[in-house]
Amino acid sequence: MVFSSLIFIYAFLPVFLTLYYWAPPKARNGVALLGSLVFYTWGEPRFAGILVLSGLFGYGLSRLLVRARGQAARRTLLGLGVTGHLAVLAYFKYSNFFVDQLNGALAWLAQGSVVWTAVALPLGISFFTFQKISYLVDVYRGTSPPARSVFDYLLYVALFPQLIAGPIIRYHDVAAQIAAREHNHDRFLSGVWRFSLGLGRKVLLANPLGAAADRIFAQDLSTLPVPYAWIGLLCYAFQIYHDFAGYSDMAIGLGRMMGFEFAENFNRPYTARTVTEFWRRWHMSLSSFMRDYLYIPLGGNRAGPARTGFNLWFVFLVSGFWHGASWSFVFWGAYHGTLLTLERLIGVARLERLPAFIGVALTFSLVTLGWLIFRTETLPDALVYLSRLTAWDSWSAAWTNPALLWPDVISRRTLAVLALAAGFSFITEPWWRRHGWDEALPVTRGQAALRVGFAALCLLLACASLAGQSYNPFIYFRF
User: Which residues are catalytic?
Assistant: First the structure.
């Protein structure tokens, strides 16, 4: 089940919220946990047991960690917990990849192959695995108290608004909210507004752009004319942003409907002036996780420029592999790690002094070229596509044979949505603040009326679109 589906909007969510608010305040955590397990089981009945059993494993270790005496015993328990969670992730997410690599090496050596049955990937396993690891590490460090009960812990792990694709939340950020939280009309309506905005971004912007990008990337890349190559890449760049940011908007909105407040996950990343700033604004919960649990333990920027560059590069290599079991993701991570290292060598402060337009344009171009590695199946495909971006002699093919792709692949509607998505992405922060769109609640009656009208329009158009289309993927579900 996905948030941007009619069955979720018109069946699951109304029934869940009705039961949630009918229940006495002390019973609402139980309703939330049961609803979250139903939500996950609906889409992944085979893997619901893994979610619960691995949760019981993590909770049990945290209790032992609290009672343990001696640093050696505590480190052993922490190592056991982190290794156990990573082993489950590695088996389900990476075993197929490693077996494929092994069989490739064996074939090259003419040694036969390993017989292997492909393993299915449980939905959201990367996200809830990171949450379980952060919980254990925080309990070990004393940053977070252990959960009051196994039910509180399971609610933290399985809470359905953020279960499938984040934001990655830390237990200490929601521990007090799990124990007691305020439910009121203002917070609920703020949640409805945020959910509607995210639904509109996902269905009305990301979906049409994704359909166009998929059709373009499915063409013979070696003959793709320049304008279509650029349009396909831009469609994907804005699709992945509005798809994932739209999901985060919906997750934050659903959390508010239940009285929870989750941290923001995106902060207008395409307005960043450097790649360093981009990663402070893009998927912020993952960036902060990698910083706190990998980059800083490796030494961060405390061991000199060379070690700092290596730490950045290694963290992004891991981040790339976290996104998917493919060499393309590894290269994408290495690409961003290299960019960040070069920026640090040049001087981020020096780059930030460039005129805003130049900094934003350069950063957006570099990030978009990175999305090309992210989107193509293999690195050779990415290199072929890259060559088509500068194949200026192919302009004539685009104009003399418009039936090649136009209008079945790149329609006027696609170009209009692309322009709207780009405009929405590059609106500057002062504009958002001036009009109060960053505020959880409207400041004036005019803002309140605008939000009601805009939310109603998003819901109406999105639901109408969902009723007539079958293309409705979430990009980050496969991560």
Answer: 323
Domain hosting residue 73, numbered range: 6-98+118-181
173, 263 Cβ separation under 8 angstroms: yes
- The residue count of the chain comes to 479
Residue finishing a domain among 181, 200, 215: 181
Helical H segments across 347-440, by residue range: 348-352, 356-375, 379-388, 395-400, 412-425, 429-434
pTM of the shown model: 0.90
| Burial degree of 196 (CB within 10 A; 0-12, 13-18, 19+) | buried
Distances (CA, A) of 376 to 98, 247, 331: 20, 23, 11
Q: Please state, in angstroms and rounded to a whole number, the distance separating the CA atoms of residues 455 and 71.
A: 53
- 448, exposed or middle or buried, with CB in 10 Å at 0-12, 13-18, 19+? middle
Among residues 322, 345, 368, which one ends one of the domains? 345
Q: To which residue do tokens 């979610």 refer?
A: 51
Largest CA-CA distance found in the chain, in angstroms, rounded: 77
Kindly state whether residue 236 falls inside one of the protein's structural domains: yes
Residues 63 and 127: their CA atoms lie apart, in Å, by: 22
Tell me the pLDDT of the chain (479 aa) as tens digits.
788 888 899 999 999 999 999 999 999 999 999 999 999 888 778 888 888 888 888 889 888 888 888 888 889 999 999 999 999 888 888 888 888 888 888 777 777 777 777 887 788 888 888 889 999 998 888 888 888 889 999 999 999 998 877 688 888 888 889 988 888 888 898 899 899 999 999 999 999 999 899 888 988 888 888 888 899 999 999 999 999 999 999 999 999 999 999 988 998 999 999 999 999 999 998 888 888 888 888 887 777 777 888 888 888 888 888 888 788 888 999 999 999 988 888 888 888 888 888 999 999 999 999 999 988 888 889 999 998 888 776 666 655 655 555 556 677 788 899 999 999 899 877 666 665 666 667 767 777 777 788 888 888 888 888 887 766 666 666 55
Q: Is residue 106 part of a domain?
A: no
Q: Is residue 368 part of a domain?
A: yes
Close Cβ partners of 275 (under 8 Å, ≥ 6 residues apart): 336, 339, 340, 343, 363, 366, 367
Query: Are 43 and 161 part of one and the same domain?
Result: yes
| In-domain check, residue 112 | no
3-state secondary structure string across 107-121: HHCCCCCCCCCCCCC
What is the rounded CA–CA span in Å between residue 318 and residue 330?
8
Residues 94, 321: Cα–Cα separation, whole Å: 9
